Amino acid sequence: MISLLRSTGALSLSVFAATGRACILLIQMLLTLPLAIRRYELLLEQLYRVGVLTLPIIIVAALFVGMVLALQGYNTLVDFGAESSLGLLVALSLTRELGPVLAGLLFAGRAGAALTAEIGLMKATEQLAGMEMMAVDPLWRVLLPRFLAGVLSVPLLAVLFTAVGILGGYLLGVDVLGVDQGVFWSAMQQGVDFHQDVMNGLLKSLVFGVLISLIAVFMGYDASPTPAGVSSATTLTVVLSSLVVLAMDFSLTSMMFQ
Amino acid sequence: MQRQLIEVIVGLFVIAGVVALLFLSLKVSNLNSAIVTDPYQVSARFDNIGSLKVRAPVSMAGVKIGRVKEIRLDSDSYQAQVVMEISGEYTKLPVDSSASINTQGLLGEQFVSLEPGGQQKFLINGDRLRLTQSAVVLENLIGQLLFSNSQGAKE
Fold this sequence. Notes:
The structure holds 2 protein chains of 2 kinds.
Chain A: H1 2-31, H2 33-38, H3 40-51, H4 55-77, H5 86-124, H6 127-133, H7 138-176, H8 181-191, H9 194-222, H10 227-256
Chain B: H1 2-28, H2 31-34, E1 40-46, E2 57-60, E3 63-74, E4 79-86, E5 98-103, E6 110-115, E7 127-129, E8 131-133, H3 138-154
Parallel strand pairs in B: 1-7, 2-6, 5-8
Antiparallel strand pairs in B: 1-4, 2-3, 3-4, 5-6
């Protein structure tokens, strides 16, 4: 009984401690921002590796998600003779929820895990310690560019996901299922509000970007420098950031769309 | 060479994101139709607005000329005070125009429809429309129909 209490307590203490260390890391990274801006090519390189290389999976996934939405929505709406609302259904689901959330989840799997593994391995092979020996702070040389690249990439990827998804829905809905093209777009334009839907979706993806990137960078930096440590840190990154994205999505939705 | 290539690709990535956002704002959402150019405000009081919502369209002869800006209860007359924004290109609306709340289709969204009057004076900013007609509440209509049917059956 006591041991159960003790393990629960130890677990929560370690979670709290890790959250605190992550916040401290975030503040320390942001304090080195001026140094990182002078070496902006580091950021560019990470934007390429984190953002551009995630683009193919985002586009392919978005096409399929848009097409599935159109197919399912059409089958349901046609029963009510409301297939003219198909465009609205596809656009609202993508701008409000699916775009930011799925882009975040895919990003966590594709780029977040890679970031953690890379930084964890650098730590395990003592490259980070080596940099410190040469008076180069790994915070701005290694961590900050990766973090910033993640923060900038996720909103871009989410917007692209939404746009490509809507095009996918258009392809299936108009070209295959035969919904009228003009009705498809005009129903969409009437129902989708720029500030309420598009901007809130963008804000969501920005929040997801900060959270996923922080988790990925922190997990790598905080990993125990062994093969097992790096592997468990990589797993934790994907699991934690997926959970955080979904939980955060629920609370943001309940705040934004009342 | 390598660095230039990365810069170009990252630039393309960012531009693609911005283009996607433009697509969402102009093609998907109502950003371009949300702007009523150079608007003036006209108000009207209704006994019952049904389910009229803020930002619902205001139309005359079926053409959209503005949108509903504000809805509140006028606590003196216990009527709904509806403030409408009319686009500045439509300045020649007679002061004795009447407003009614109609429904798009049988169960669609409600909107304000203006009927032109006959006077030569035109509405200006801050005017109030005197002649209004409330929304038709479908439930009341069905209730009345049932009531009159049962009355007819008795006789």
